[in-house]
Amino acid sequence: MLLYAIILYYSSLYKSSYATPLSSSPELDGGTLSLTLLQEDSSVDMCPRTRLEIIWSCLATILAASWVAVHPNIPGRYESKLKKTVRRIELMLCAIVTPELIIYWATRQWYGAREMEREFPSIRYGESLIQSLVRVKGPLTYEDSQRRKGIKWTKTHGFFLQMGGFVLYKQGKPYVVLQWDTLIELYQAGRIDLADITEDKINDHSKADGFGKAIALLQTSWFITQCGARFFDTHLVLTELELITAALSVLGFVMYILWWNKPFNAEIPIAITLLDDVRIDCPPEDQSNTEKPVISFFPKWTQFRVAALFANPFRCYKYAALSILIQVFVFIPWAVGWHILRRIDQIIRIQAYNANPVFDIAVPGALRVPTFHSATVADFSDAVRHQMLHGSFSLAMLFGAIHCVGWSDKIIFHSHAASMLWRISSAAITAIPVIWGLGFTVDYVQPKVLGIVEISGPCESNTRQKIRKIYNVSSYILYCVVLCTIPFYIASRVLLLILALVELRFAPSNALANVRWANVLPFIH
């Protein structure tokens, strides 16, 4: 993060080198500049900016709102750097295209960390002394007893646990990644020692400290402030790219707040040794076979063998070309769409705690959690999940409403077609989250409605079946509508980004004028 601030600082120095020089006027004696002339023409910009500077400022803020704001879970111990980088890029793209889903994931983790912090003190003192003396080899000493009583579980502990940061070691080998229920069960039985796992020890695994996060948060807040100043200034114009970046910055600000106590980009978990043999419900993952199965999204009949080239080159060439065309125009788009829907399903649904290295889904005994994992605490009911979803959809509506600012006269388009495309796309990303919220509301109240129909005595059985059938059909139709709106939402987001980049070529002179007090903080732009 310090390097990030230094880069921003030197970029400001680069920008200042292109300031407009003060030239002398023939009407002035001695080549001096008249202050009266400057006061009369207040619209003169002494430090205009270029389009490249606008792109750089927006790019730095987008990275702060996507790459830096998103705190990934701990990767697998055998994963390559390439796979880790690809996963980070995927998270960054998710934060740019669908930031409301990332906020929902962050909200779930924040809620789980808060509930763990509240629940741990009562669990710590609810330990059975007789059970501990029987199971542990020998009674606890006075020092060990006092040391265990001094354990303080914080939100950082809860976040790190949900990241897959605590791995149980059995006989010197990694056994399983610990989750809340298993950790508390072993802790109550005296099988693990958490006294040495302090908040400072966990923060040592983080790649960013509070100062680095504060710098990135200040960058995001400062950009939003500048955009607001440009919008309300009568002499300035806000570009479309800055408007999109401001919308992402607002949601990135929420991500920073929710994940403030979560370690950033931690890659090495903390080993917790099992003090005595005890039966664990999750069997260990077999690490003997390090080769991973190759999974193909394409049916076998579209694939061909290279060895057949020598048997019949013309025939093989014909089928090879057909196979390539089918894969490029049919199965690759299908695989990409299927992967996107699966990722959305993983974010929305509550996943179990272990992850398959190929499919990134829950399997027993894996040593890392899924990419979008969050803990399932006791108080995480359907009502709480429903409230979190509606909160995320409300932020998505706010995200779209910020894009609707482009309908005003402060955003200038070079053509009527571009203006209409912007209006349609911004209206789509504002209205579609309303449909999503309605769909999840129907899904939430469906068991309650069907339960009321079942217990209603006066209704006949045929009437109950008709009501149930009508409700199920309407729910299915609404579910299909929600599913169909997902590609339209993503397409609208991509179209807005393309329009913003294209319209930057036709930026008017007022859009290139700088805010006069923008250089108050020299390295934040």
Strand content: under 5%
Q: Please give the alpha-carbon distance between the first and last residues.
A: 16 Å
Strand order of the largest sheet: 2-1-3
Question: How many strand segments?
Answer: 3
Radius of gyration in whole Å, from Cα? 29 Å
Shape descriptor reads globular
Q: How many helices does DSSP assign?
A: 17
Q: What is the mean predicted local confidence, pLDDT?
A: 74
H/E topology pattern: HHHHHHHHEEHHHHEHHHHH
What is this structure, in a nutshell?
By secondary structure, the protein is mostly helical. It has helices spanning 2-16, 35-40, 51-66, 81-97, 99-125, 129-135, 142-149, 155-162, 180-188, 199-203, 210-232, 240-258, 313-348, 382-403, 416-455, 461-503, 509-512, and strands at 166-170, 173-177, 270-273.
What attributes characterize this protein structure?
single chain; 525 residues; mainly alpha; 3% strand; globular; disordered N terminus
Task: Walk me through what this model shows.
- It is globular, with a radius of gyration of 29 Å.
- It contains 17 helices and 3 strands.
- It has helices at 2-16, 35-40, 51-66, 81-97, 99-125, 129-135, 142-149, 155-162, 180-188, 199-203, 210-232, 240-258, 313-348, 382-403, 416-455, 461-503, 509-512; strands at residues 166-170, 173-177, 270-273.
- 58% of the residues lie in helices and 3% in strands.
- The model is unreliable at 1-10, 12-44, 128-138, 283-314 and 350-363 (pLDDT under 50).
- With 525 residues, the chain is mostly helical.
- Strands 2-1-3 form a 3-stranded mixed sheet, with no helix packed on it.
- The chain has one domain (1-29, 44-285, 309-515).
- The chain crosses the membrane at residues 52-69, 89-107, 241-259, 319-341, 388-408, 420-442, 476-502.
- Keywords: Membrane, Transmembrane, Transmembrane helix.
